[in-house]
Amino acid sequence: MTRTRQEGTGPPAGVGATGRPATGPARGARALLAVAALAVALAAADTYVVVLALTDMMGGVGVGIESLQRGTPIISGFLLGYIAVLPLIGRLSDLVDRRRILLWCLVVFVVGSAVTAAAVELPVMVGGRFLQGLGGGGLVPATLALVADLWPRGRRGLPLGVVGAVQELGSVLGPLLGALVLAVAGWREIFWLNVVLGLLALLGVVLLRPAAPHRGSPVADPGPTGRGSWWRRGAAYLLAAVAASLWTLALWAPEALTTSVELGLPFVPLDPDSGSRVATPVGLAAAAVTLLLALVTLPRWLPLLLRADLLGATFVAVALGSLVLTFSTADPETEVLGPWGVWLLPLGAGSTVAFLLRQRLAAAPLVPPGVVRRRVWPALVVSLLVGAAIVAVVVDVPLLSRLTQGTDETDAALVLVRFLVAVPVGALLGGWLLRRVGPAPVAAPGLALAAVSILAMARWERASLDELVSTTLALAGAGLGVGLAIAPVNDAALADAREDGHGTVSSLVVVARMVGMVVGLALLTALGLRRFHLEVGTLADPTDTDALLDAAVVQVQTVLTGAGYAVALAAVVALALGWRPVGRGQG
């Protein structure tokens, strides 16, 4: 069981625990932020780390390159874990100590990395990637909410910029990290490296205990006490150790045991043709012990999940999961909806309606009343629109490179480096500027710069990417402008969120951006494909390769034009984020 401070019982905004005005972060806050930010960067890098290793990973689980579509769940499984449970994790971080959420997210991320590294069958690998996304996605809202706890209003700009910068930097470092590891080792070592780095971050969070925060924050309840709690705790530790050992044996399947006449029987697959390491006696034993562990610890976690509105979170997870699986499994160059879209979209729509009804009828809904208010709304809209624009640039600029320059996927992705590097630079600059001006004067001009830059990209022709200076200016301008908006959006949202809702609001901002990326790519691709087919329909010779290439370039231009308009609209909405620095009144 847990308890939280009641709203209004902590020191007022901008006032420290002693009652004096707070002028800086709590003691030890910077060190904890550094560790949490590095963990966020690691999780962000994992989103893209499979770009170069995907075919090797597929080979490692017996999927040939001729069945490339079967490897799609390796990517979509991570995205599903990343986005589907974000609102629940955000709400949980409002009910218990933020550090505890960071710890558990890191534990899940490390376990997912180990499972992925040891996988020899596709379902196990997808499960490992799902766990990686689950843990990695939860790190972001917990870290953003931690900034709100440890820094006073008006001083959060730079730390929020740091979080945004390292998250974006991860997207740059992910493919590079994968390439470096693949140059000296195999794809499994990528994920074992994740395990090592994740454990180091876990140790850092355990050791670092900042002083009392400036604002009232969740306080963990020690839980049930008495004779019954001791045996439950001891049994939980014992079962966890046994489960970890059995899963390790099942997934590792050491040759000395599997080839032994006396000891090999537990490792024999129940279906001899499958070669599965999980569907074996030792795998079933591991699953049984894990289930028993869940039952023994039920009184510890079930009341907390129910208090966070598990039912409402389930509706959200189904709705978001339906979106992710519908659009992320589609080939953005040829189709809008994935193969299951006709079934998943109605399911997602029904879950959305059920969630909205739950919000109105539940006594303690997933998103508490009054948490989303004032400047939180424009922050969510800006995040949604920016997400759509980012994914359009990330997908269609490399596509244009492949079409016009004949590059492979790796070389085409390198064209984006100028954009991806500029985003974290803009995030840091935007956070620094918030110490002097309000969110709107930072975000709106930044997004206007991004809109102008992306609309300039939308005019690129077949030979445009050969012009280094003009393409660099456009890509860097777009990245810098998008980055400038990251800290202001988070700062304005956290400033107007209720004190007991920082985690919830932070998760909603991240969800809005991810939904914008998933749905925005689909809608913009639909416009692009429609324009492509219209162009092809006007051709005198539909088999003319040169003319078809021109039509494909028009498709890319259409998508980038839509992205530019989306960012321009975001710049207008960003004017509502507030003109005065946070902590000096609202503009």
What's the helix and strand layout?
Blueprint: H1 29-48, H2 54-60, H3 72-84, H4 86-95, H5 98-118, H6 122-150, H7 157-184, H8 187-207, H9 227-252, H10 255-258, H11 281-296, H12 298-307, H13 310-328, H14 341-361, H15 376-405, H16 409-414, H17 417-433, H18 439-457, H19 468-496, H20 502-537, H21 545-573
Please name the defining characteristics of this protein.
21 helices; globular; disordered N terminus; mainly alpha
Detailed description of the structure:
The protein has 587 residues and is mainly alpha-helical. It has 21 helices and no strands. Helix 7 runs antiparallel to helix 17 (417-433). It is globular, with a radius of gyration of 25 Å. The model is unreliable at 1-21 and 214-223 (pLDDT under 50).
By DSSP, the count of extended strands is 0
- Structural class estimated from helices and strands: mainly alpha
Biggest sheet overview: none
Shape: globular
Helicity range of the residues?
Answer: over 70%
Rg calculated over all Cα atoms: 25 Å
